[in-house]
Amino acid sequence: MKKIVFCFAIAALLLTSYNSVASKEEIVIYLQEKGAEVAPSMYGVFFEEINHAGDGGLYAELVENRSFEELEMPKGYHAEGDRLISSRLCNHTTGESSEWAAKWTTDPVPAWSLKTKNTLAAQMKLTKDRPLFASAPNNLEIVIKDASESVSLVNDGYWGMGIAQGEKYYLRAIVRTSPDYKGTITAKLISEKGDVLASTVIETSIANQWNDFRAVLIPSAKDSKAQLALEFDATGKVWMDYVSLFPEKTFNNRLNGLRKDVAGMIADLNPAFVRWPGGCVVEGISLGNRFEWKETLGDPAARSGQYSLWGYRCSYGFGYYELLQFCEDLNAKAMFVCNVGISCQARTSEASPADQIEYYLDDCLDAIEYALGDVTTEWGTIRAAAGHPAPFPLQYVEIGNENWGDEYDKRFDLFYSAIKEKYPQLTLISNHGMSGIGKIAQTDMIDPHWYVSPDFFFSNTHLFDNYPRDKYTVYVGEYACNNRVGGGNMIAALSEAAFISGMERNGDLVKMTSYAPLLENRNNREWPVNLIWLDTDQVVGRSSYYVQKMASENRPDYNLNSNINMAEPKPATIAPGYFGFGSYSTKVEYKDIKVTQDGKTIDLDGAKFTSERGQWEINNGVLAQTSMQNGTRRLLTGYKGNDYTFEFKARKNRGHEGFLIYFGMAEDGSKGYVFNIGGWKNSRTAVEVIVGGGTAGTLNKTVPYSVETNKWYNIKIIGTAAKTELYVDGKLILEYKAKSAPLQFFSSGYDETTGETILKVVNAADVPYSTKIKLEGAKSVKKAGKVISLTAKSGEEENSFENPKNIYPQESEYKRFGKEFEYEFPSFSYTILRIKTN
Ligand code: AHR
């Protein structure tokens, strides 16, 4: 047994595969040795309008496309079939112009349909005729030509409407009729089977004018797939500007509020803060598509909404006021993310002209004033008029979302100093990740993001250990294990728990975290893995949700120093595989390709290229990739193994990055590794793992190596089962050593209020993990204590709508705690021990 000692240790036991050898282990916790504090702000939530998280999710509105604005496009955009296309815009980092295509619907009036005797009886179309609100100009014109049988305009809700028997639903309909329409309009709640569950007549006493009608509907039965129908019984014309149906019972009984069950799930996480409004929606595909908080205020019927770049329109119903109120209800701080005049850098990357930066800065300052300003200020007055004279708990402002580069840095400095000057009490966050803060003068916090595979989190629990502490702290604003884990499974959750142990141990640096994304309507999984799933009448927490909940509910005040003895890991190997060439947004050439093994050159004459991405051609023995596509790839057969020397020449002809050299690849390109030489806008070089055909995180430290254009480089890769080395022009640039995946992790801390030592242990192996636990320096240890445990039968297991509590924290009493005790942690488990210690 090898003794490994490290402060606030993480137990990293064994293995390349998820098998484990059960052996006697020892964890020693020093109760007299206080480690880093774990800040009360540690666990928060990240909200973005993605996956119908808000509309059709948290926001309680039951009518989809209530304002008929769904097909309103951002300025300058057009639709081609099911694609929404932006105008050509200049990417400010590359200087190149391009358009961006997003998801669009071909439905003529989304969510609404006409039910008639025959198609000629009535027709509907969207118009902008005499809009009631200039900000939401669309309305629906219905022409009824034959009313011998009733004509119904039906709204399906967000994949149905979930309604409860005997409860009140507020109907609001803004309707105009032509003078020749002499009939009535009846609103009916219809069950999935077609029964009428409630109805009311909409009064439209004044023809030719907008009537703002309100009524209460009380369903006679519950239904999870109800519809709202508006029935017309006469010929003539009717225009609908707005139709809304809202439950009376919302979270904390707020008007225009949130679904009780969904908000309740979030409240159960006891979040210290809520980040809003995103995410990429902050930036927009282009600036014309950015999220505009000012448009989210006031009468919901007048809110413009905006196309969410995640494929549908966001109604702006869950607006800034509602967010701030939600924070207050949760006893959480608000985090506002502002736009610095740069659109999403993974999309058009448009930057506003310099003379407009101030406009964006003012917009951000106004948002802060709206939350914090007193009632004498311009925006404080508007807030007070909305019903909240007291300030809201805004504490954090993130300046931009996932922006980077010199232009961002320049703007960040402007925003930072202007905001700090006016609001020194606020914590300001930059978008920088762990590789440094670029050219900015200062920041309070940085915001690294990780969407990765389990291996990444399992092998990066020490990522923060040696990070400098002196200048700023860290907010891990978006992280999730979402690669190779289906819709999210127990291994994903356990890998996050392992990563959390590393973040908690480094609580002096990592002060805030938020899993992302938070919510998913089960009918619209736009993002692969999300924390909470919902339907019209159900909310399901994935295993990751319970990891978040357990970690947050059992946040210690500070860490306790510890040591761990563990078994020697089995040596890991790099799986044999194929080579390949590629590039990222760069034109490249490769030639003089040679593979040798045991001093012999492998004959590549019969070699072929397999899976391809990009535009490839071979001229005079030179393999060229001539497109500017991202992640191009061409794999070479002819040699497969993990013991070789691979040599060739490479030249970059044009573009933003350098070379992608694949190794250890599966034939279909689904998994393997890639040397990304001059990646991240030609700023550095690293090895990335390929999972499911795409890159899934870097495997080692990046090195600051870049590539010049029009220069031939001699590249040599020396591979063995244990490591792969990259040489450029004879110089070793980087090596990647196969690492054993750790499967047991722990952190330990102390809760001063309850006088308990808290141990959080992850066992991601498929066998139980037995260990001795020693509480050094404890005067007394109470035998009986609490165990909270989340377990699954396999790493693939997950909760479902049918079995939402399949993986669910179990609380029990344990009666054999002591200064020294044995404990067996089940396979695939996250366990928290709470031990009363003096
Ligand atoms: O969480 C989903 C997206 O991931 C966010 O919008 C963005 O910030 C990140 O790229």
From TrEMBL:
Pfam family membership, one: 3keto-disac_hyd
GO MF, any single term: alpha-L-arabinofuranosidase activity
Catalytic activity: Hydrolysis of terminal non-reducing alpha-L-arabinofuranoside residues in alpha-L-arabinosides
The protein's Enzyme Commission number: 3.2.1.55
Record domain Alpha-L-arabinofuranosidase C-terminal: where: 477-829
Keywords for the protein's UniProt record, in alphabetical order: Glycoprotein, Glycosidase, Hydrolase, Signal
Gene Ontology BP annotations: L-arabinose metabolic process
PANTHER family linked to this entry: ALPHA-L-ARABINOFURANOSIDASE 1
Assigned protein family: Belongs to the glycosyl hydrolase 51 family.
Protein name, per record: non-reducing end alpha-L-arabinofuranosidase
